[in-house]
Amino acid sequence: MRIRIVDAFTDRPFAGNPAGVVVLDQPEFPDADWMSRVATEVNLSETAFVHPLDGDEADYALRWFTPAVEVNLCGHATLATAHVLALEGTVRFRTRSGVLTATTTDDWITLDFPTAPLSPVAPDPELLDVLGATPVSVHHTGPNTDDLLLELYDEKAVRELTPDLATLAGYEQRGVVVTAQADGPSADYDFVSRFFGAAAGVGEDPVTGSAHTALAPFWSEKLGGRSDMVGYQASARGGYVRVSLRGDRTHLTGQAVTVIDGTLLT
């Protein structure tokens, strides 16, 4: 059985967010425990498992696993899967978050995901101590993402954040997104972010597509109703996500590069 490692939301290897992709020949998923063990062995933030469907609703069924849990929504591993399938045009995936589509045009892949609703919440003083941050605002995102989104005062605060990941792993939410507007008009992006998913077995995720389904509506409102923006996730690897807000749907566009193509022996 073939397994690929794909760097997503980047046009060059060893950047963006790496994901494992396993394309199954069988018409159903294997045991969830086996998929979880594979994801733990791969030890990336997400490993995607996909198999073909014979029906009108979708072309493939798709699931995502971190080294610790199965998740409801993942952007970079979906983009990586579409890249591996190498199908020009649109492919439909049946997932825990409904039917998602990926449209490939030349080297660019656009994902059509549900927009995450945002609910203002009161800052948790203990969480702020763990993060070492003072936010402008705090929102809960959901239901597919279940993250906390914190706007910080400036880009420097986002880039310099050093949270206590061990303590953060004890919180209920899937992850914590921190974000700020780009420092100036010379930047080639509109906002910056980082994502910490310790509770899901991911310390800092390099580029989190699903988080941008909340970042898109958040920054659209902050930036005067703009619907098309570029986000830069300022992890050590870094990556760009083009976002287009389309009401209750958000389009996420990026590129991907296969860096390993191997065989899963068991």
TrEMBL record:
User: What InterPro entries does the entry give?
Assistant: Phenazine_PhzF-like
UniProt keyword terms in alphabetical order: Isomerase
The record's SUPFAM superfamilies line, in alphabetical order, gives: Diaminopimelate epimerase-like (SSF54506)
Q: Which domain of life is it from?
A: Bacteria
Coiled coil location: none
Which Gene3D superfamilies did the record assign?
Answer: Diaminopimelate Epimerase, Chain A, domain 1 (3.10.310.10)
> Which family does the UniProt entry place this protein in?
Belongs to the PhzF family.
Q: What is this protein called?
A: PhzF family phenazine biosynthesis protein
